[in-house]
Design brief:
- The radius of gyration is 23 Å and the shape is elongated.
- It has a 5-stranded parallel β-sheet.
- By secondary structure, the protein is of the alpha/beta class.
- α3 packs across α5.
- It has 8 helices and 9 strands.
- The protein starts with a strand and ends in a 7-residue tail after the last helix.
- The site of ligand 9WO has 16 residues, from β5.
């Protein structure tokens, strides 16, 4: 997978890709990340990349020419490259779309600044607009890092052989079950007995039920998309009855 990041602040990207899993993936050649300074594609003496908005108003708008030059240069070598603009106006990013994007070989990530990009960039050069959440950042760069992280971890070999991210809980629309490690007792708070039993069938059932319970309490919307067995449904009915009897509001936890 090749990522090309188009940004006015290339320095923002150095440390996230020098650490941990992404650094190893780059070393192994599983991903390539090219950080491109849009300013390098401004051909005038002062390398102007932004200008005042037509019609007046506050702030500056990123000019179309420098962005068009870099995208056209990339696509002249690989027409299949897919251009994504990171913006709050984009489609909210979900794991399903992350999986689809991980099947592509070349992504161009356009990071906006100021008041955004000239509309002709979006009309002529952007294939998809993606939001990582309903909030406004100072630029698209952090959103680009989030997308690269989420996509990269799905690529074969990135997480290592003992872990397939494709089976992530979000992949089957459930939240994760609770995780514990040593010590077995922390200030009187003990690890659930079943996890120490060595009974893998019982452990698997406990984990499934805890994931169902947590999803029911925190993200019931996800249950609509989940593939539930009859046993799952029966369990959910039981906890629903139990919670309504107890008037329990522990779902806030
Ligand atoms: C800013 C904005 C504010 C309110 C409603 C919509 C908005 N869109 C943008 C926008 O696209 N801004 C550009 C990119 C330029 C300023 C910084 N940018 C940005 C991208 N801020 N926040 C994001 C972003 C990207 C992906 N997911 C969430 C936020």
């Amino acid at each position: 997978m090749r990522f090309e990041i188009l940004t006015l602040f290339p320095g923002m990207f150095h440390s996230p890709f020098q650490e941990s899993i992404l650094a190893k993936a780059i070393e192994k050649g599983l991903i390539e990340i090219r950080i491109i300074n849009i300013r390098d594609f401004a051909t005038d003496k002062h390398q102007v990349v932004d200008d005042a908005p037509y019609g007046g108003g506050q702030g500056m708008v990123m000019k179309v020419e420098p962005i068009s030059r870099v995208i056209e240069q990339i696509k002249s070598k690989d027409p299949s490259a897919w251009t994504i603009y990171l913006t709050p106006e984009g489609k909210p990013l979900k794991q399903e779309r992350v999986k689809e994007l991980s099947l592509r070989s070349h992504l161009i990530l356009l990071c906006g600044r100021y008041e955004g990009v000239d509309e002709r960039v979006r009309e002529l050069f952007v294939d998809e607009e993606i939001s990582i959440g309903d909030y406004v950042l100072t630029g698209g760069e952090l959103a680009a890092m989030v997308l690269i992280d989420a996509v990269s971890r799905l690529l074969p070999g990135v997480l290592g052989s003992d872990r397939s991210a494709m089976e992530d809980s979000f992949s089957d629309s459930l939240l994760e079950y609770p995780q514990y490690t040593r010590p077995a007792n922390f200030r009187g708070h003990e690890v659930p007995e079943v996890l120490l039993s060595g009974n893998h069938q019982a452990i698997s059932l406990w984990r499934r039920r805890e994931a169902l319970k947590r999803t029911w309490m925190r993200r019931p919307d996800l249950l609509k998309k989940a593939e539930l067995s009859e046993e799952d449904k029966k369990f959910l009915e039981e906890i629903s009855k139990q919670m309504s009897l107890n008037g329990d509001n522990s779902h806030k936890r």
